[in-house]
Amino acid sequence: MQWIKKNLFTILLLLIALAGVGLLAYPTFANWWNSFHQSRAVASYMEAVTNLDKEQYEEILRSAEEYNKKLANTGFLWKLSEKENEEYNAELNINDTGIMGYISIPKVDIELPIYHGTDEAVLQIAVGHLSGTSLPVGGENTHCVVSGHRGLPSARLFTDIDKLVEGDHFTMTVLNRTVTYEVDQIRVVEPTNLSDLVIEKGQDYCTLVTCTPYGINSHRLLVRGHRVENEQGDAQVVADALMIRPIYIAPFIGGPLLLILLILMILQSRRRRRRSRALEQAWQELEAREKGAHDDETTE
Prior knowledge:
Layout: H1 2-6, H2 8-50, H3 54-74, H4 82-90, E1 99-105, E2 110-116, H5 120-123, E3 127-129, E4 142-147, E5 169-174, E6 177-189, E7 204-212, E8 219-228, H6 250-299
Parallel strand pairs: 2-3, 4-7
Antiparallel strand pairs: 1-2, 1-5, 3-4, 5-6, 6-8, 7-8
Helix pairs in contact: 2-6
């Protein structure tokens, strides 16, 4: 207890520094943690795809294409009934995780699993496919829409898609087929404006949706792409597990703070030693004066 009282200032400095380092390092660590789990989710999905036999694969793809054809005839289902929602969630759900594929945007280093629906639980960790829009398998008369958050402290997600410009590319991988889209339109609209998300006859579109402006989120940023042929065509062999590169920021933040803390502790320790020496010297001088006075009285 006595030691705590003597070192209370140092302990408080240490606690403040640790709290500061923790707050500053949290976004980096949380983003790394989410990236790790996103990578695992994609790897698990791709493993499930490799375990499908030819008949299963063809049936899943045929069902998704039929679903899209129905939407092309009836129009998008902006509000699904309970039965329609069950039918939607059953499409492309090959491993019962809700993942229907993944999106890659090389320019901004994004590789994220795509889940059914845009519930908040999904958007906190990945991107969601807007239910009632075309499934992301491509094809004439389709328009797939996927949505993701930006600016979350725990995950990058769609934070950087505002850096995309017309001519950039992104891909949608579903089953073992990758479809490439080239950005051809970027718009900012009101949240209730859905006119840019409808199917256009003969087109194969995919639109990425996120909130804007950054931190205000009063509007929606729509980044649309039209399908183009990639160098390998649409068919793609399933690759090994993706590796998400972690961001090493915490050491650069924590290092200087800990150095400052160490300097403060050293200065505090030196001040205590100086005070202790000064006090000891004062006591010695006082004792010397008292002894001199006592010797003078004895002489008299």
